[in-house]
Amino acid sequence: MTMAGKRARTTPTRETTIMDIARAAGVSKATVSRVLNSVPTVNEEIAQRVRQVIDELGYTPSQTARSLSLGVSRTVGVLVPDLGNPMFHQVLHGFNRAAARDGYRVVVADAFEDADSEAELARDLRDRTDAVALFSPRMTRAELLELLPRVGPVAVFNRTTGLNAGSVLIDYHEGVMVLAGHLIELGHRRIAFLVGPAYARANWERERGLQEIREQHPEVEIVDVPCGHSFEDGYTSWPAIRETGATAVIAYNDVVALGLLGRLSEEGVAVPAELSVAGFDDIPFARYSSPSLTTMTSRLAEIGERIWTVLRAEMTDAPEREPIMFSPELAVRGSTKERP
After folding, report:
1. Residue 20: what pLDDT?
2. Which residue, 150, 149, 153, 110, is CA-closest to 129?
3. pTM
4. Residue 19 has pLDDT above 90, yes or no
5. For residues 35-58, average pLDDT
6. How far is 165 from 155, CA to CA, in rounded Å?
7. pLDDT in tens, 96-120
8. Pick among 3.40.50.970, 1.10.260.40, 3.30.565.10, 1.10.40.30: CATH of 18-70
9. In CATH, which of 3.90.76.10, 3.40.50.2300, 3.40.50.720, 2.60.40.1120 is domain 75-170+300-328?
10. What is the pLDDT of residue 4?
11. Which residues contact 116 (CB under 8 A, 6 or more apart)?
12. Lowest CB count within 10 Å: 139, 152, 171, 185, which one?
């Protein structure tokens, strides 16, 4: 038996709608919506009546509908140029963990190293989410600056934005100079650099740093070897490296370096006894390769967390527009030694 004037809660034979709540409470749909979204302007007596009907009818509001009503989804998008690169996995891990702590979910899109598709993918992500993070976008600077106001709030990893959006960067310029300096201290005078994608800022900054090394150390020859960014690129680079006569190699990244190490093992080339090899990024595999890979460690998960804080700030009235630069540190392991 129920109290007079109070309906018994029943299991509905169909999904209860806002219209059902409005009819039962004797109010408009708009009033029900305001109560569901905790809008304080609703009369407390009416709000209490609506909440009672909601409880009696067993109504559960659709999260999607609520998001549309509030104009927020508690979801953010991330556009990555290449999900095949473990470096981005580490950055994403940190980003996702930080976003989850703030109650946000992350949707990820892969551009497959296709710069021409990035703008459309970014706009599509932004249409579905509250904000977007662009990881190492490959588009031109002019294209990037044109895109930023169209997809804001937005934060960018590894590209400068002219203070048009928050940005977090790794100092590849200084990092590669430290790495080259390590090899020079070991006595290497002919070093091969496995060049990365021409469109990548990470490659531009490495090239700039190595040019400064050439100017500071005229006795050292640094030979550019066209390569790429993948395991396969590193694996197939060996014949060209052999032609240079280099005693040490700086790979564009750890992925390339690990591909090269696999090929050197097959060819019977002893590392580092015959050839020193160094990478960049310190992805998890680097520590466990054979030999373990000398590299520049960039604290990638920490970087991911910082990208989130920058994006979160972009979603407020107090964005952080000054670029945040992370300085990588040298991790000396088993793949480099004194010149043979």
Report:
1. 86
2. 153
3. 0.78
4. no
5. 84
6. 6
7. 999 999 999 999 999 999 999 999 9
8. 1.10.260.40
9. 3.40.50.2300
10. 41
11. none
12. 185
The structural domains of the chain, with segments of one domain joined by +, span: 18-70, 75-170+300-328, 172-298
The SS3 assignment for 261 reads helix
Token look-up 């998001």 returns: 67
Amino acid letter, 129: T
Q: Which amino acid is at 290?
A: S
φ, ψ dihedrals at 75, nearest 5°? -130, 140
Q: Which CATH architecture has domain 172-298?
A: 3-Layer(aba) Sandwich (3.40)
DSSP 73-142: -SEEEEEES-TTSHHHHHHHHHHHHHHHHTT-EEEEEE-TT-HHHHHHHHHHHHHHSSEEEEES--S-HH
Give 278's strand partners: 250, 294
- Residue with tokens 């804001």, as numbered in its chain: 152
* Residue at token pair 């559960």: 60
Tokens 């219209």 belong to residue: 19
Q: 172-298: same fold as 18-70?
A: no
For residue 255, CA distances in Å to 153, 188, 196, 198, 278 come to: 32, 23, 11, 17, 11
Kind plus residue range of the DSSP H or E element containing 60: none
Query: Who contacts 132 (Cβ-Cβ below 8 Å, separation ≥6)?
Result: 76, 77, 78, 79, 122, 125, 126, 151, 153, 154, 155
